[in-house]
Amino acid sequence: MDVTDEAEAVARTIAGRLGLRVVELHSIGDCIAAGELVRQVWDAASADSVVNASTMRAFAHSGNYVAGAYAGDLLVGVAVAFRGDGHLHSHVAGVLPGHQGGGVGHALKQHQRGWSLRHGIDRVAWTFDPLIRRNAVFNLRKLGADATEYLPDFYGPLDDGVNAGDVTDRLYIEWHLDSPAAIGAARGTPADADPAGAATLLADADDRPVPGSAAPDGGPLLIAVPRDIEALRTRDPHLAAAWRVALREAVTSTLTRGYAISGITRTGSYLLRHPEHQEVPR
Questions:
Q1: Rg for the chain (alpha carbons), in Å?
Q2: Which Gene3D superfamilies does this UniProt record tie to the protein (predicted)?
């Protein structure tokens, strides 16, 4: 079985195990339903501020990726992506409130992986908020993707319920679909980020960002993220903003020294290594 056939088989198995049906969306009615789901996920006044139905309809009609996950007749997840320069850019992926954390997002991404490989695309890229720990774990460990670039305030001000009042710093993700990391993750054996010997550049102390004592010697480094930044934004917006500044400074200063993010540890810290000191290639 080649990598494409295996990817599609894995996607079907994962969806079937969860009782989901993941399919491409084409009709305007399906796209309107997808837009409403997206509106709910982002707590937006209108789907137009995230991605609207007519845009999804145009994407689907022109050979791009628009898919939905159904539990019975209920649409519980949506993913929208468009073709870029030699890759697929995953613009939006969301799961209906009340169904999050149950594997719907994973089923959608594995379907997207199979679809992409079937269409001759071996790389999917997207952005995510680096302060959201669960998304970092999902992207870097559960999918086997790589974080390659830090993008300060990438989208500018957004007015939806998730992003309003915050700067939109993002990490750029590249998912090499036929890589050992992606294949192992799809099979349920993701690679662990081994923090042995790593020094702490930024620590989490009772939800507060605390500078570590890492020496700039080229050795591996750990950069912590808060346990639940979304709850922290509600409880203490000033502390959440302090995390944004601290994480941005820690990551960008390290990347400019030639480091790369090699994964995220089980305790929720980014692990960064310098290429000249790599011990465990990804």
A1: 19
A2: 3.40.630.30
